[in-house]
Every structure is written in structure tokens, then in C-alpha cells.
Design brief:
By secondary structure, this protein is an alpha/beta fold. The protein has two domains: 275 residues, TIM Barrel, CATH 3.20.20; 69 residues, no CATH class. An eight-stranded parallel beta barrel has the order 1-2-3-4-5-6-7-8. It is globular, with a radius of gyration of 20 Å.
Length: 355
């Protein structure tokens, strides 16, 4: 069973430009990708500056992209992260939130994400506060689907270390209090899950009282460590059997939009092929589709350097040779590789704190 597949532009660092987004939709819609959630961490109007209205020019660009998605048969949505709103959901905050919702709904949203991630959460009544906000939004939202990202969206204890100890029964409380029609996101046993199993997802569904909406953090490569690697290989650890246990499967793509198409195409193939899926062959087919035979071959031969060794594991001479090899190709994906080798996509810890 293939669930609804989609793209989540939810990474730190340089976001895609509008042409890159449009090209991604055009490339992946035929493969079954049916939604695009616009939620780049660098868009402050959805995050720390959420109270500020979008400038008219930016709102016009969002509207044009929404229309592009609809023309391709793809649901368009945004992920709003009302930073620390649950610390003071008072009259002025509600007025600011209503104004932002009016702007966003003017785009004709199919999906509205309410994201409570990346903020402190060690409050005993956190779930109740967040449910109050979501219910208030649901009463005013014209979006066809509401999707909530909890503050604690994985079993991974790294969230407790960074954002404070999760309240006991937090996920269960959200699941019990939220309208069953509202989706809840989940990234798995880790923030960047190596694998998903039907048993794990069934257990989480019991806690949430609904099937989880997967936020899959592959092939995303943001952050000081991951930005030093290109995530190009085919999806593994996502057996087709998990399709029956989830509401949807959203892919948080890499900072390189064209290269991201390669693993994204293999995820669609993994669901379609089921037990017959072979990740090596799937990578080659997807790479040739995106890159053409010659560039695909060059990328496959360099996988150990690009994905495994990464920038910090390459000697200067190797970097120089790789740069010359890929600079010889007139292809946007080759230019992404060259830019990565040049450090253009490197992300520092300061960006994680300010975006």
C-alpha cells in the first residue's frame, strides 16, 4: 500500500528559490508526490517573526507557487511555527495569529501545518496549551487539512536534552484531546530515523489515537554535521508494509533540490515494488532519470566520497579532482555538487539558533 507521498521543505539554511520549488513539483508529481508543505526554517514570517505580516511581494510569490502546485494536482500547504505562542495565548497574540491566518488562507491553502517543534517544551500542561491553540485555529481555518507537529515528535532523547524534559504522557494527552481529524507528525524512533517498522508505528498510533503523519528526515542534510555530506543513496529501512500504518509520508528534502529528486524517486519505487524492491538498482534508475547516464555514473562512482566521507573526510587533492570532474558537466545537479564542495551549503550552529 502506497500512502500519500509529499515534500516537506523544512530544513535549516538556504531555502529553495521559487523556480527550484516549481521544478521539484513538476518532477515528483508524476511519481505520486501529492503534497508540498512550505516550511523553510529561514522564513522568519512563519517562525520567530510570525507576528509580522508577509510583504506583498513575498505573498504574491507564495500565491503563484500555490497555483503551480494546484495545476500539477499537488496539495499546497504551509507550516506555521508560532514561536512560543503557548507561553502567552492572550488577546494581542490571538489578534496577530488571526491576521497571519487571514494572509495564509488568502493563498487557498489545502494544508495548514501548526508546528510546535524547535522550542522549549518542559511545561507540565504543554499538551493542554497547544490543544487550546490548535482548536482555536481549527475554528477559523479554511484549510482542508490541519497537521500538527508536536514539540516532542520522536522517541529520541536528544529533544529532552535540548528543549527540556518532555512532560509525562505528552503524546497521549495530545492524541486524546485533539480532534481525530487533525493529523499528528512523527519522525520515528530518532530525529533522523534509520528505519521505520510497522510495529513501532502501530505503537505510536495507539498513543496518538490516529495514524502518524511521517516527517521523514532523509535525505535532509542541514546542520553543522549533516551539511558536510550529500545524501544521495536510495531509501532503505522503509518497507512497503509501513504504508498501512501511516496517514502520509512526507520527505524533508536536502538542501540540494535537484539531487534530492534521486532518493525521492526511490521512495516511490520502494512502495510500488514492495518486497521486490532493490535499493541499488532503484538508485541507478532514479539517478539516470534525473541526471542522465554519464552524470549518474560519475555520481555513483563518487558516492563513497560525497555521502560517506563528506567534506571533512576528503583530502584537498580529492576535493580538487572531484570539483574538476563535476564542473565538466553542464547540469544543475553537477553545479550543486560543485557548490557543496566549495562549502556553499555549509551550515553553522548559529543558523540553528536564529532560524
Amino acid at each position: 500500500m502506497t500512502p500519500q507521498l509529499g515534500i516537506i521543505e523544512g530544513f535549516f539554511g538556504r531555502p529553495y528559490d521559487w523556480a527550484e520549488r516549481a521544478d521539484m513539483v513538476a518532477a515528483l508529481a508524476p511519481a505520486g508526490y501529492g503534497f508540498y508543505l512550505y516550511a523553510p526554517k529561514a522564513d522568519g514570517f512563519l517562525r520567530r517573526r510570525w507576528r509580522d505580516p508577509y510583504p506583498d511581494a513575498e505573498l504574491e510569490r507564495l500565491g503563484a507557487f500555490a497555483a503551480h502546485c494546484r495545476a500539477a494536482g499537488v496539495r499546497f500547504g504551509v507550516g506555521l511555527s508560532p514561536y512560543e505562542l503557548f507561553l502567552g495565548f492572550d488577546g494581542p497574540a490571538k489578534d496577530a495569529l488571526a491576521a497571519k491566518l487571514d494572509q495564509l488562507h488568502g493563498l487557498g491553502l489545502d494544508d495548514l501545518g501548526i508546528f510546535f517543534d524547535d522550542m522549549k517544551g518542559d511545561l507540565p500542561d504543554l499538551a493542554a496549551r497547544q490543544v487550546e491553540i490548535v482548536d482555536w485555529i481549527a475554528d477559523r481555518s479554511a484549510a482542508g487539512r490541519l497537521i500538527v507537529c508536536p514539540s516532542y515528535y520522536t522517541d529520541d532523547p536528544v529533544l529532552d536534552r535540548v528543549f527540556g524534559q518532555r512532560p509525562p504522557g505528552y503524546l497521549e494527552s495530545l492524541g486524546e484531546r485533539l480532534d481525530p481529524a487533525i493529523e499528528l507528525m512523527w519522525t520515528g524512533e530518532e530525529v533522523c530515523a534509520r528505519a521505520f517498522s510497522p510495529g513501532h508505528l502501530a505503537r505510536v498510533a495507539g498513543q496518538m489515537r490516529r495514524k502518524p503523519f511521517l516527517w521523514d528526515n532523509y535525505p535532509v542534510n542541514d546542520g553543522p554535521r549533516m551539511s558536510r555530506h550529500l545524501h544521495l543513496r536510495a531509501f532503505t529501512g522503509r518497507p512497503a508494509a509501513i504504508g498501512a500504518e501511516i496517514a502520509a509520508h512526507g520527505v524533508n528534502t536536502a538542501s540540494q533540490p535537484v539531487l534530492s529528486l534521486i532518493p525521492c524517486l526511490t521512495l516511490a519505487e520502494s512502495y510500488a515494488a514492495g518486497d521486490a524492491y532493490e535499493y541499488g538498482a532503484a538508485f541507478r534508475r532514479a539517478a539516470e532519470t534525473v541526471l542522465g547516464a554519464d552524470l549518474a555514473g560519475a555520481v555513483e562512482r563518487a558516492l563513497l566520497s560525497l555521502e560517506d566521507a563528506g567534506l571533512d573526510g576528503l583530502e584537498d587533492g580529492t576535493k580538487t579532482r572531484l570539483r574538476a570532474r563535476f564542473a565538466a558537466f553542464d547540469h544543475p545537479a553537477a553545479r550543486e555538487i560543485v557548490a557543496w564542495l566549495d562549502g556553499v551549503y555549509a551550515i553553522g550552529a548559529d543558523e540553528l539558533q536564529t532560524q
